[in-house]
Amino acid sequence: TPRPGPVAYHRGAFVDAATAQLPLSTQGLHYGTGVFEGIRAHLLDTGELAVFRLDDHLERLLAGARLLRIDVGATRHELTEVVGELLRRNGLATDVYLRPVAYKLGLLPGTRPGVGLSGVSDALSIVVSALGNYQPEQGIRCLVSSWRRPARSAIPVRAKITGGYVNNALALDEARSAGFDDAILLDDRGRVAEASTANVFVVRDGRVVTPPADGDRLPGITRDTVLTLAADLGVPTAEAELDGTDLLRADEVFLTGTGCGVSPVIGIAGRPVGDGRPGPVSTVLRDTYDETVRGRRPGTRGWLTTFALE
Ligand code: PMP
C-alpha cells in the first residue's frame, strides 16, 4: 500500500493536504486578510519531535488574529493539542516546518459587501512539511532593498499579516533577481528594519546590536532567543536603531528567523562584511542556537514542546 501523503489541519479536521480545498471567494486570498506563523520542530536524539517556542508562536498568531477580528476557534492549549496530533499523523521522522494560517473566509448572510472585517467567517489551516537547514554554511550576501518597510501607521508590521508580505516578496524578488541571497529593508525613515523574513543584527567591537522590536518590526522569536543566549554566553547586547552605514561598518552582520536560524551575512550591497567570512560572534551564536533548538544544551527555559511520534 502506498504511504499516505501529508496531512493538514483544515477547518477543524485532519485532511489529505493534497486535496484540501477553499472557495475561490476566500476573502483572505483577495484582500490578504490573514495571519500566519512559521514554526520549526526538530528531531531529537530521543526520536521525539521538539517544537521550538510553540507557546510564543501561538501567542503571536492569536494576537494577530485578534487584530484582524479573526476567531481562530481554539485556545492556545487546544492548538498545542492540534499541533501534536498533526505531527503524529504525519509521522515525519525528520526536522519539520509548521505553517498555521488563520484567515477571513466569506461574508455571513445579511452582511454588507466590502473589505470590512466584521460579518465574515474565519478559518484556520495548518500545513506541515519536512524542512532541514537550508542556509549555506559559508554565509549569505544581501542587497539593501530599494523597497522600504511600510510604516506601522500603514500596516501593523509587528504581526505576521499575510497581505503585508507583498512588501517582503517584492524585496526578496529584487535581491534574488540581482544575484543576492536576501534583502535588508530600511524603513521610511532610513533605519534598518528587517530582512525579507528575518531580523537583523550587527556586531561591532564585540557588542551585538539589533533594532528595538517596539512595533516598527516583527518581534522575532529567534531574535529574542539570540539576545537571551548571547547574555548567557556573556556577550554584551544592545537594542538600538541602525542605519545603512552601520551595516557597512559592522564587524559582523547576521540575520535571525525561524526559517534561517542564525544566518551570517558575509556581503552587503557588493561589499564584504568584515573579512567576508562568518565572524566569531555570529558563528558561536549560530552553533549555540542550533544546539538549543535540538535540546543539546542546558538553559532551554521550557522552550521545547516535545511530542512522541508513536
Ligand atoms: N521579520 C519578518 C518580516 C519575518 O517574516 C520573520 C519570520 N517570522 C522574522 C522577522 C523572524 O521572526 P521569527 O524569529 O519569530 O521567526
Automatic annotation (TrEMBL):
InterPro entries: Aminotrans_IV, Aminotrans_IV_CS, Aminotransferase-like, B_amino_transI, BCAT-like_C, BCAT-like_N, Class-IV_PLP-Dep_Aminotrnsfr
Names of the cofactor(s): pyridoxal 5'-phosphate
Pathway linked to the protein: Amino-acid biosynthesis; L-leucine biosynthesis; L-leucine from 3-methyl-2-oxobutanoate: step 4/4; Amino-acid biosynthesis; L-isoleucine biosynthesis; L-isoleucine from 2-oxobutanoate: step 4/4; Amino-acid biosynthesis; L-valine biosynthesis; L-valine from pyruvate: step 4/4
Pfam families the record matches: Aminotran_4
Listed EC numbers: 2.6.1.42
Catalytic activity: L-leucine + 2-oxoglutarate = 4-methyl-2-oxopentanoate + L-glutamate; L-isoleucine + 2-oxoglutarate = (S)-3-methyl-2-oxopentanoate + L-glutamate; L-valine + 2-oxoglutarate = 3-methyl-2-oxobutanoate + L-glutamate
Keywords: Amino-acid biosynthesis, Aminotransferase, Branched-chain amino acid biosynthesis, Pyridoxal phosphate, Transferase
Molecular-function GO terms, alphabetical: transaminase activity
UniProt similarity note: Belongs to the class-IV pyridoxal-phosphate-dependent aminotransferase family.
Function, as annotated: Acts on leucine, isoleucine and valine.
Protein name (database record): Branched-chain-amino-acid aminotransferase
